[in-house]
Amino acid sequence: MKLRLHFVVDPMGWFCISMVLFVWLYNSFLIPKLVLLPHYAEGHIPAAVVAFYYLASLLCVSALFRASTANPGKLAQDPKIPLAERENWELCNKCNMMRPKRSHHCSRCGHCVRRMDHHCPWINNCVGEDNHWLFLQLCFYTQVLSLYTLVLDFCQYYYFQPLSSVDRADFAVLHELALLRGSCFMGLMMFGGMSSLFYTQVKGILADTTTIEKMSHLLEDIGPCRSWQQAMAEVFGTRWKILWFLPFRSRQPLRLNLTSRPHV
């Protein structure tokens, strides 16, 4: 798998993605050190609980890296337009380049993106045709990791057996603020925000509508409906559902024999 990295020069985007990485590092190191590893060492929890947390953390940061560095569908400077497809292309009035319909010019990145959904400062990248599937994975694995963190924080105080190697009063003084308040606050914020975002993204995919089209009302009457399997397969580039959850792969466009909803 050959990966080409795509970086956007935007100080605001760098700040936003740094905040996201801080939250991931905070929870990915704090929770195992204070909760998982001590309880595993004393035999209170099985190894699978620890392994699952590290797996969720790895998949989350992998999806973040891929979504932020993948080309979202940037158009070439001199695109070669097949004669049979010229009627599906239009001229961008901002960069004076020909682009396929449903493309959009991102003022933040300074170029047109095929089937652009929106520009996300939290990944410092556009979300377009070629990295939309990675953005969905990021939303999904962030929900999983955040929910798992909240469950572990709850279990630490109300379910797990007390640690014999740590004094309970000292633990409360040293780590309660960082663990119970800081970690829970971040987990609630990330889980709530990503759940809402994931819902709107999936809803837009099933309706064959991007966020920009929805906000600009650039759509006509609904055409033939697609099943959810067909809609998701087109975004992820494969009909194999198990591959929808793997960020460690490349995506090839999957053209379905369907008539999409007409867009203006």
UniProtKB/TrEMBL annotation:
The keyword Acyltransferase applies. Its EC number is 2.3.1.225. It holds the Pfam family DHHC. It catalyses: L-cysteinyl-[protein] + hexadecanoyl-CoA = S-hexadecanoyl-L-cysteinyl-[protein] + CoA. It is a multi-pass membrane protein. The chain crosses the membrane at residues 12-31, 43-65, 138-159, 179-199. It is found in: Membrane. Belongs to the DHHC palmitoyltransferase family. This is Palmitoyltransferase.
